[in-house]
Amino acid sequence: MIRTPQKAFKHFFDRSFIIAISAMVTILYGTSLTWSPEIFFLSTSNVEPNKNAAPSILPQNETFTLAKKISLSHNRVVENAFDKDSSAIHKKTISIEIPRVFAAHLPAELGIITNIKNKQEMFIETLLPHILKYNEDILADRTYLLRLKRIVDNGNSLSFEQRLWLQDLAKRYNIKHISFDELLKRVDIIPPSLALGQAVVESGWGGCKYARKQNSPFGLMRDKTRLMTFDSLYEGVKTYVDTLNKHPAYDSLRRIRAQQRQDGIHPCSLKLADGLIYYSTRRQAYIRQLKQLIGLHSFKKYDHARFITDLRS
User: Are 166 and 127 in contact (CB under 8 A)?
Assistant: First the structure.
């Protein structure tokens, strides 16, 4: 077959075009095998610094690489920074925002729902706001208590109203003789991860009908055979937290928490769990199960949860 010059040129062009496209596909495929999301984020050590920019709050000899950026539903952005000059990993706090919505009871659906993931999400979404709300109230009292302690430590006297408030607080926390140290040991939060973990252990993710109907997800007993009953879920949460903060059986938990505060550490549920030896007749087996559950379901991320800010002017 004899090709005319026009046909020969067209044939050559078609073959060249096909070869070029094949080469591009091969290059792109090879790149995709070696590319990872982390490459997208550049190390500050590889970027020419802007001499006119404002000085960084970090020491000049520290360089960081942003290794991962995760966006979670209902969560704020999470960033993990890896220090090149150290093997330590610096993690920014995960901030989970939840709506300020409070259910009066655990949903009846928890007793019949078969999808495990949906059941777990429903349980947490119902219980967590109540835990955060009561911790919020406790922190308000603790903040004012610390303010009064500073006044006294500076050699000043409390006003009549301040003394009355302090006496009322001591009465609410079963303290006969006012002591700032003892009050601060008791007037403190219970980490949401610990509360959620215990609620799961005691109620089976809300599957226990008595926990739902009696608003008692923490297994608090009136006596050896009867579960305590509360008018609302919030009252059940409040009584649980108050029990850990007041009952003599949990003094070791409060001492662990106080030491963490003294060391500048946020209360850790895994450490506080060691102070729950008398919460269950199973003793150490209960504590081991609780710690495993907190870790398995990543409950500690809820320790930094907060209510969505109301943006009203």
Answer: no
Neighbours of 9 (CB within 10 A): 11
Whether 25 and 157 share a structural domain? no
> What does the block give as tokens for 121?
């999400």
Which single residue is written with the structure tokens 């990872």? 36
Per-residue pLDDT of 173-193, as tens digits, reads 999 999 999 999 999 999 999
What is the C-alpha to C-alpha distance for residues 222 and 44, in angstroms, rounded to an integer?
60
Same-domain pairing of 261 and 134: yes
Residue 276 dihedral angles phi and psi, to the nearest 5°? -105, 25
Residues 298, 120 contacting (CB under 8 angstroms): no
Q: For residue 172, count other CB atoms closer than 10 A to its CB.
A: 14
Whole-model pTM: value is 0.71
Per DSSP, the chain holds a count of helices (H) and strands (E) of: 10, 5
144 with 274, same domain: the answer is yes
Extract the tokens encoding 12.
């050559």
Using alpha carbons only, give the angle 267, 264, 251 rounded to the nearest 5 degrees.
45
Q: Look up the domain containing 258 and give its range.
A: 108-307
C-alpha 255/C-alpha 275 separation (Å) is 9
Q: What is the pLDDT of residue 151?
A: 98
Cβ neighbors of 181 (< 8 A, separation 6 or more) are none
Question: Residue 295: CB partners within 8 Å, gap ≥ 6?
Answer: 270
Residues of 180-199 as b/e, b for ≥16 C-beta within 10 angstroms?
Answer: eebbbbbbbbbbbbbbbbbb
Q: Is the pLDDT of residue 9 over 60?
A: no
